[in-house]
């Protein structure tokens, strides 16, 4: 079974807001000057912000904000966020890998930006019965 | 960046309690666009059986990232934080975090390795209430990039 794909738009304003809310003020997430100095292609989204957006998709698919029992990702490629009003887009999809007898559903999740995979081994276990 | 493998298995002292506030949950949920009422409205959270506002799944990183400074700033380990990138992240929840929780983190170094000039450090953070109730276990792998 596959879930309908979801698309999240990410702009610089979102990164600044996430930095404030999460307390992660690493300048690679808001300063082009700093990001390029350390060899990045530009300002990149916090990996944890991408993970949080994917987490939103998972809870929305699950139909409950407290359904997630386990959730893990590997950050494989940075999400570069240009300094304009459009920003960039992250597309998220998932398919069911397994439904266990004790009411858990294991998902394989895919997240891409500009057609490139930004997370790998993205997996979640959700509770399907309360 | 070569990391000392003898740090594997090391457990750090529990961190000072982090008090999870309602407004912090609302702020974090708003920042990630999580509009479910259980993150914002007390009655909606209680209707799901929670004592207070429900935190989104990745919220615990606020607590564990602050706690991990214990490791990444450990002078004996000698990590250059300006060269650190995030590799893996995983959460295994006993129950969701809710407002009013007072959370304590206990950090353990699970794995240290060096490959291709880069250092890799995997930590497990056991997040419990001050009363010792397990809430979530959090694994994080960081990569310390070598000099090019």
Automatic annotation (TrEMBL), chain A:
<dbReference type="InterPro" id="IPR002539">
    <property type="entry name" value="MaoC-like_dom"/>
</dbReference>
<comment type="similarity">
    <text>Belongs to the enoyl-CoA hydratase/isomerase family.</text>
</comment>
<dbReference type="GO" id="GO:0004312">
    <property type="term" value="F:fatty acid synthase activity"/>
</dbReference>
<dbReference type="InterPro" id="IPR029069">
    <property type="entry name" value="HotDog_dom_sf"/>
</dbReference>
<dbReference type="GO" id="GO:0005835">
    <property type="term" value="C:fatty acid synthase complex"/>
</dbReference>
<feature type="domain" description="MaoC-like">
    <location>
        <begin position="6"/>
        <end position="104"/>
    </location>
</feature>
<dbReference type="InterPro" id="IPR003965">
    <property type="entry name" value="Fatty_acid_synthase"/>
</dbReference>
<protein>
    <submittedName>
        <fullName>Acyl dehydratase</fullName>
    </submittedName>
</protein>
<dbReference type="GO" id="GO:0006633">
    <property type="term" value="P:fatty acid biosynthetic process"/>
</dbReference>
<dbReference type="Pfam" id="PF01575">
    <property type="entry name" value="MaoC_dehydratas"/>
</dbReference>
From TrEMBL, chain B:
<dbReference type="GO" id="GO:0019171">
    <property type="term" value="F:(3R)-hydroxyacyl-[acyl-carrier-protein] dehydratase activity"/>
</dbReference>
<protein>
    <recommendedName>
        <fullName>UPF0336 protein HNR20_002138</fullName>
    </recommendedName>
</protein>
<dbReference type="InterPro" id="IPR039569">
    <property type="entry name" value="FAS1-like_DH_region"/>
</dbReference>
<dbReference type="GO" id="GO:0006633">
    <property type="term" value="P:fatty acid biosynthetic process"/>
</dbReference>
<feature type="domain" description="FAS1-like dehydratase">
    <location>
        <begin position="6"/>
        <end position="137"/>
    </location>
</feature>
<dbReference type="InterPro" id="IPR016709">
    <property type="entry name" value="HadA-like"/>
</dbReference>
<dbReference type="InterPro" id="IPR050965">
    <property type="entry name" value="UPF0336/Enoyl-CoA_hydratase"/>
</dbReference>
<dbReference type="InterPro" id="IPR029069">
    <property type="entry name" value="HotDog_dom_sf"/>
</dbReference>
<dbReference type="Pfam" id="PF13452">
    <property type="entry name" value="FAS1_DH_region"/>
</dbReference>
<comment type="similarity">
    <text>Belongs to the UPF0336 family.</text>
</comment>
């Amino acid at each position: 079974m596959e879930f309908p794909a979801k698309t999240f738009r990410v702009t610089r304003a979102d990164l600044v807001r996430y930095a404030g809310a999460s307390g992660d003020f690493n300048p690679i997430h808001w300063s082009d000057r700093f990001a390029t100095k350390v060899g990045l292609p530009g300002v990149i989204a916090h990996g944890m912000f991408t993970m949080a957006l994917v987490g939103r998709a998972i809870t929305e698919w699950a139909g409950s904000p407290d359904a997630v029992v386990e959730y893990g990702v590997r950050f494989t490629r940075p999400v570069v966020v240009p300094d304009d009003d459009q920003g960039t887009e992250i597309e998220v999809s998932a398919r069911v890998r397994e439904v266990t007898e004790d009411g858990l559903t294991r998902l394989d999740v895919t997240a891409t930006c500009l057609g490139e995979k930004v997370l790998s081994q993205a997996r979640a276990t959700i509770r399907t019965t309360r | 960046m070569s990391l000392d493998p003898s740090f594997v298995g090391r457990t750090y002292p529990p961190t000072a309690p982090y008090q999870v506030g309602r407004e912090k949950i609302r702020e974090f949920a708003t920042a990630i666009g999580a509009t479910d009422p259980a993150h914002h409205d007390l009655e909606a959270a209680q209707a799901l059986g929670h004592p207070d506002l429900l935190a989104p799944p990745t919220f615990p990183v606020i607590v564990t990232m602050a706690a991990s400074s214990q490791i990444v700033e450990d002078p004996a380990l000698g990590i250059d934080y300006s060269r650190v990138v995030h590799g893996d992240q995983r959460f295994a929840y006993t129950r969701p975090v809710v407002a009013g929780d007072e959370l304590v983190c206990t950090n353990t170094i699970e794995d240290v390795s060096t490959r291709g000039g880069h250092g890799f450090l995997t930590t497990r953070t056991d997040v419990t209430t001050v009363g010792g109730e397990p809430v979530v276990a959090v694994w994080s792998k960081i990569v310390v990039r070598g000099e090019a």
